[in-house]
Design a protein that fits this description.
Elements (H helix, E strand, L loop, with lengths): L32 E4 L4 H12 L3 E6 L12 H4 L3 E5 L5 H12 L3 E4 L5 H4 L4 H5 L6 E6 L14 H7 L2 H4 L18 H22 L3 E6 H5 L6 H10 L10 E2 L2 E2 L2 H5 L2 E3 L5 E4 L4 H10 L20 H15 L4 H10 L5 E3 L10 H5 L3 E6 L3 E6 L4 E2 L17 H10 L21 E5 L6 H9 L3 E6 L18 H4 L2 E6 L4 H11 L4 E4 L5 H5 L3 H7 L4 E4 L16 H8 L1 H6 L11 H16 L4 H21 L6 E3 L2 H8 L22 E3 L2 E5 L5 E5 L3 H10 L3 H6 L6 H6 L1 H12 L4 H10 L3 E4 L7 H4 L4 H4 L3 E6 L3 E6 L4 E2 L16 H7 L4 H9 L3 E2 L2
Parallel strand pairs: 1-2, 1-4, 2-3, 4-5, 5-6, 15-16, 15-18, 16-17, 18-19, 19-20
Antiparallel strand pairs: 6-27, 7-8, 9-10, 10-11, 12-13, 14-20, 17-28, 21-22, 22-23, 23-24, 25-26
Helix pairs in contact: 1-8, 3-16, 8-25, 17-25, 22-26, 25-26
């Protein structure tokens, strides 16, 4: 099973408070009672987070057990929980469920809109007798709008959002391509976590609960790190700003593709480089022995070239250089210059052996009573003074049935004392976050808290967060991660700049830092220094790799972490060649497919940001509930491992993990893409027996399919899956995609037209999913003026949310400094010395 935790582990960090500080060691969610009615990944992973941090989670599953039990990651998803089998269609089962939910602190459900209410489990019904209840609902598209009733399968949602057409090129065929990675489910689970924790935080102040809602359509939106506002710019300045395709005629078009080079080594290992800034790119060119090109007139514009032939020549030069050395030889080169870095594309669950994962203590090893020795991702957030107890295994089927039924008979809601009226106010109103981070993976986490009402003060370098200017149009690339923040430009490498930061930190609730290892400590903003000075300050470190260790000093960008954690191979690994004797043309074709996998739609930046936001909320709730101000750690590599939990478990006899076929159509004949009439495609999701029966009745010739012995039972269909796919493909080719969507939806079969790319158009454009589901609003920008933007990704029944605007570098510096006590003369002097920049 590879490297073990004992082989490489971080030394214990000394507690900066007294060893006997019992409050600091209290589990953050101890005493919180959660009833989870979900039997899909989104809900299960949300409640698993809550269970990891001390909540008493009861999973309600149907008689015979949840379908989650058949998944490879069940020991991970079920850890720390209890469960009870209940038939919610029977009066006795419903009554028990209602009793449990009516006495809970949190109810989590993933029913289609209206189902909870029909079962007597809706918020209005339960909240009437339990005013402190937090009721969280996760749907496919939201509880209102024309798509509310559509089954919330992840594949259906992603198809409607244009994700599969955006991934065209993953397979060696034309048309849209299916994604095996749960790009929608994982972020949605974390949005639900944030909504629940925000409502619990508000309940600590008001005594009142409320309903919380989010959806897969909202969760999927977190992956867009820059395309949305690139499209806004292109629409506003159509004559001056042209968006190029990423690849033309089999050759990358933009310089970023060469800065984020995908290449193969001499011994057949695939590498993903991460040289996004000019300084890092120059270091790579020098390591490659190509520094001379900067002085050669022929290459003076590198890595951006207008001519296709020049791009081809340059690309081939880079690929041949990387192929001149083995993987081990390149690792030795990287050790000589930490500014150059490339990750090997890991497969399956190999991230569990990543040296940084082990050093960070983010791999769990335990003996599970059902499966034996088990390795899995540890808790998503490392709390050094209250480690998450992960020793309680997933519940056996029926193990707790009798105990929980007995509890239901005497269950009563906790008494509520209403202490404040904050109706209409955002749940985090009054919370201040100081952000010390760049790019997207950490900063977007605090953006999510800003939408929940927190004030976020972004302290950025005098020339601004480099993310701002990664697109040709200035100040546009980083807009999404800047929304709702006070932008303060200050040089933290100076003593006076540090003093400016400390004025704000003294009054802050949370500090978020996301720098490479050592940077925060050099500047005096490490956790030990700040918490010693401000003991009530919550501290989250959210770097790419970690605060130390073998990789902590390495540059980490989304593509490198995608490679390191196995995200790319989750989608294309089954059909990707990886051996040393490939021709150059074969290397180029495979490199493009890997590049599409790491930059097409889903990415580790977004996964890490939404994970860090959950960590921030956990720290805030922990402090509010008397568990102290924690020092916390998340990392990009461990967050991505949590996203890929299906493959990130290691035990004997693990069941197979669903993976797309070599041509990336889908998981099975009843959960995959089909070409319709013409060039359009549909996505079909009918994996359940009742859905197959409805499908067979509705399809032309479906009765013959249903009568065919090869397809008559679930096991027969599984054994003859390819034959069924061929038969269905022949039928779907006979009609237009929109006609299939209309007619099959009419009989409650989830079949939708695969919307064209780009994904952002399916949120922004009139009549799109985002438009009709009310996911979009407008904001203001100093340069772009009125712009479309997403609404807050979590909705509340009683609390409001905030959709703030993005500012320019230093736009808020003067106003914020005045607020923190600086006068005119001091501000002028600091600006004159270059310590601050005024917008």
């Amino acid at each position: 099973m590879g490297l073990r935790m004992a082989d490489l582990q971080e030394p214990c960090v000394e507690d900066h408070q007294a060893a006997g500080d019992a409050a600091a060691r209290k589990s953050p969610l101890e005493g919180v009672r959660v009833i989870d009615f979900s039997n899909v990944l989104t809900g299960a992973q949300a409640s698993q987070f809550l269970a990891d941090y001390g909540a008493d989670v009861t999973h309600v599953e149907p008689p015979g057990g949840s379908p989650l039990r058949r998944q490879a990651n069940w020991p991970f998803l079920g850890r720390g929980k209890r469960s009870i089998q209940l038939d919610l269609k029977a009066p006795e089962g419903r009554a028990t469920a209602q009793a449990l939910a009516g006495a809970a602190d949190v109810v989590l459900e993933t029913f289609r809109p209206g189902v909870a209410e029909r079962l007597g489990l809706g918020y209005a019904q339960l909240g009437a007798g339990n005013p402190g209840l937090v009721h969280a609902s996760i749907t496919g598209f939201g509880s209102r709008g024309p798509y509310a009733g559509l089954q919330g399968y992840e594949g259906v949602v992603l198809a409607k959002l244009g994700v599969y057409w955006a991934l065209a090129g993953l397979a060696d065929r034309p048309g849209p391509c299916f994604s095996s990675a749960p790009y929608g489910s994982y972020p949605t689970s974390q949005l639900a976590v944030q909504g629940v924790l925000a409502a619990l935080y508000d309940r600590e102040i008001t005594g009142l609960g409320q309903k919380v809602e989010t959806s897969l359509a909202q969760g999927m939106s977190i992956h867009d790190t820059g395309n949305w506002f690139s499209r806004v710019v292109a629409q506003k300045f159509a004559d001056a700003y042209v968006r190029k395709p990423r690849v033309q005629n089999g050759i990358p078009t933009g310089g970023l593709s060469y800065r984020l080079l995908v290449a193969m080594t001499k011994d057949g290992k695939w590498l993903q480089f991460s040289q996004t800034t000019q300084r890092l790119f120059v270091a790579m060119m020098n390591m490659f022995g190509l520094g001379w090109m900067f002085e050669d007139p022929k290459w003076r514009s590198l890595p951006d070239f207008e001519e296709e032939d020049q791009r081809r020549e340059y690309w081939e030069i880079l690929l041949n250089v990387v192929r001149s050395k083995t993987h081990a030889e390149w690792m030795a080169e990287f050790d000589r210059d930490p500014n150059v870095w490339a990750e090997e594309f890991r497969r399956h669950g190999e991230a569990l052996d990543h040296p940084q994962m082990i050093y960070n203590r983010m791999v769990s090893e335990r003996v599970d009573p059902a499966v034996g020795p088990l390795r899995e991702p540890g808790a998503l957030v490392r709390l050094d003074r209250a480690p998450a107890p992960l020793d309680r295994p997933a519940p056996g089927l029926g193990q707790y049935d009798a105990v929980i039924r007995a509890e239901a008979k005497t269950a009563r809601p906790a008494p509520v004392t209403r202490t404040a009226d904050r109706t209409g106010r955002a749940p985090l109103d009054g919370v201040t976050v100081v952000e010390l981070a760049t790019y997207y993976a950490a900063p977007y986490a605090s953006t999510l808290l800003a939408e929940l009402g927190a004030r976020v003060i972004k302290l950025e370098q005098p020339d601004g967060d480099p993310h701002r200017n990664m697109l040709p149009f200035p100040e546009s690339a980083g807009l999404k991660a800047l929304q709702g923040k006070d932008c303060v430009a200050v040089d933290l490498n100076t003593s006076k700049g540090g003093a400016v930061a400390h004025r704000m930190l003294a009054k802050a609730d949370i500090v978020l830092q996301g720098f490479r290892a050592g940077v925060a400590r050099r500047q005096g903003f490490d956790a030990e220094s700040l918490q010693a000075r401000y003991p009530n300050l919550i501290y989250l470190s959210a770097p790419g790799y970690g605060e130390g260790g073998p990789y902590g000093h390495r540059p980490a960008f989304a593509p490198t972490i995608d490679a390191a954690a196995g995200l790319a191979f989750r989608n294309v690994g089954g059909s990707l060649p990886a051996h040393a004797d490939l021709t150059l043309d074969q290397v180029k074709a495979a490199a493009l497919r890997l590049a599409a996998a790491v930059s097409g739609v889903g990415n580790a930046d977004a996964i890490s940001a939404v994970s860090a936001a959950s960590a921030l909320m956990l720290g805030l709730v922990a402090r509010q509930r008397g568990a102290g101000a924690h020092r916390m750690l998340t990392s990009m590599v461990s967050s991505t491992a949590h996203c890929l939990s299906e493959v990130m478990v290691d035990y004997e006899g693990k069941p197979p993990v669903p993976t797309a076929d070599a041509l990336c159509h889908g998981f099975s004949s009843l959960y995959r893409l089909y070409q319709a009439e013409g060039e359009d495609w549909v996505f079909l999701a009918a994996p359940k027996e009742r859905e197959w029966a409805r499908l067979a009745c509705a399809l032309p010739g479906g009765e013959a399919l249903a009568a065919d012995a090869r397809f008559a039972t679930p096991s027969a269909r599984e054994a003859n899956d390819e034959a069924l796919a061929q038969a269905l493909q022949a039928i779907f080719r006979t009609r237009a995609a929109q006609a299939w969507e209309r007619d099959l939806r009419a009989v409650d079969v989830a079949c939708v037209m695969a919307a064209p790319a780009p994904v952002e158009a399916n949120y922004m454009d009139p009549g799109s999913v985002g438009d009709v589901q009310d996911l979009v609003t407008t904001g203001q920008h100093p340069i772009l003026e009125e712009v479309q933007r997403l609404k807050a990704l979590v909705r509340f029944s009683r609390s409001g949310t905030v959709t703030g605007d993005a500012g320019l570098v230093g736009q808020d510096t003067e106003r914020v400094l005045r607020e923190f006590g600086y006068g005119d003369a001091e501000i002028a002097a600091l600006a004159e010395e270059g310590v601050i920049v005024l917008g």
